[in-house]
Amino acid sequence: MIFLKVFCRIRQIRSFFGVAPLLALLFAAGCASSVPPVKVCSDPTPEELRIAARSAELAELLRPLPIRSTMLKLPASPLAPEEATRMLRALQACGFNRLAVTVDRLSAFEEPDEDDALLVLLNAAAECEVPVELVLRQKDFVRQFRGNAFLRLFRSETANLPEAARLAAKFIADQEEAVRPVGVTVVVEPHLFTAGAPGRPQGELFAWSEKSYGTGFDNDHLMATALGELSESVEALSPLPVTAGIADFYQEKAAAGELSCGSVEDFLKITPRIVVYNSGNKPSELLKTVENELAAATEEDSVLVAVTIAPHTAITSGALRRRDWRDLTRAVNYAIEKWQACPAFGGMALGPFPLIELLLAEE
Question: Where are the alpha helices (DSSP H) in the chain?
Fold first, then answer.
């Protein structure tokens, strides 16, 4: 009897250990399905904290302005949608409420595919609710012959500024309303067409020079042509809002009688708003270079000021130098406080944005 009880007990133990692995697997599976995975949240890095703090600081500086634009040249290579969205979110964090994209090639308007950088940007901007304004520069669209004398019989000349505007107008009209640009800035820059400039229009009889000022002289003829191209471009882009982009010394030359046209008043007769490209190299120059333009405009909010940041501190003219982030924000804050005293001042454009991003992360 004792042997029989021991034998039965051993059989029970063997049976239990035979199913134990299966029970363990079932128990583990049940636990795995009921317990959610643990999410590990890492603390922000010092660089992320620095970028967030500086973005908030810039946003606070720009907050009083109705138009807070940043500038970007259309990338030559394809742009990933994720990168475009990331950039749009970053510029929003900096307080910008508009993106000005310089388009320097007609191919962006002529049958672009869905991967084209401009379409990717427009779609990302629509998703982030950031208005986009296209920028067409006169220097990028000038009449040029293509090929030798024989090939010119069969190949058309390159497009000038009004023709580029017409292509841009068609491109914009073809887009869905949600992604359509809100306006176009047409920048006239006849002062770049000097005698030795490689981009000077073919067949142009006149060349800009410091020695060619005066009514009826070369500079005067080139400015009149530029105003004509601006008027044609505005007509081609109608009913889109158009802003005229000008250099910061045309007003002074016109006021001095060295140009018969080219004043702020002349441009505001063609477009309701102008953007003055500030060539100031120092904070004090930011004010000096545009004070006459702001004083000459009689309509409120009719003048924007574009400030290009220098890529390095050694540059001597044409862009704002900065030693570090604090130096940049101090200059921008000083300029905005002074410009706001002028009724014509309606906002500013600061950029290019890729350089702003570098400065945000700079130690």
Answer: 2-34, 46-62, 81-93, 117-128, 161-174, 218-237, 250-255, 264-268, 283-288, 291-296, 325-339, 353-361
329-359 pLDDT tens trace = 999 999 999 999 999 999 999 999 999 999 9
What integer best gives the mean pLDDT of the chain?
Answer: 87
Strands 132-137 and 303-308: unpaired
Q: What are phi and psi of 67, to 5 degrees?
A: -115, 120
Q: What are the angstrom distances between the C-alpha of 39 and each of 36, 42, 112, 217?
A: 9, 10, 42, 73
Residue 219 pLDDT exceeds 70: yes
Give the mean pLDDT of 307-322: 83
Burial (0-12, 13-18, 19+ Cβ within 10 Å), 333: middle
CB 249 within 8 A of CB 285: no
Locus of tokens 């004070």: 291
- The CA distance from 152 to 144, in Å, is 10
- Whole-angstrom Cα distance, residue 28 to residue 151? 78
* Residue 133 or residue 36, greater confidence: 133
Residue 189 CA to residue 272 CA, distance in Å, equals 19
pLDDT digits (tens, 9 = 90+) for 181-202: 999 999 999 999 999 898 888 8
- CA dist list (Å): 30 to 21, 26, 35, 59, 357: 14, 6, 9, 51, 49
Dump pLDDT digits (tens) for 238-269. Answer: 999 999 999 999 999 999 999 999 999 999 99
Token pair, residue 176, equals 């869905």
pLDDT at 273 over 70: yes
In angstroms, rounded to a whole number, what is the distance separating the alpha carbons of residues 45 and 211?
A: 56
Beta bridge partners of 274: 244, 303
- 23 φ, ψ (degrees, to nearest 5): -65, -40
Of 343, 313, 358, nearest to 331 (Cα)? 313
- Which amino acid, residue 149? A
The confidence score (pLDDT) of residue 36 equals 56
**Beta-carbon count within 10 A of 150 CB:** 8
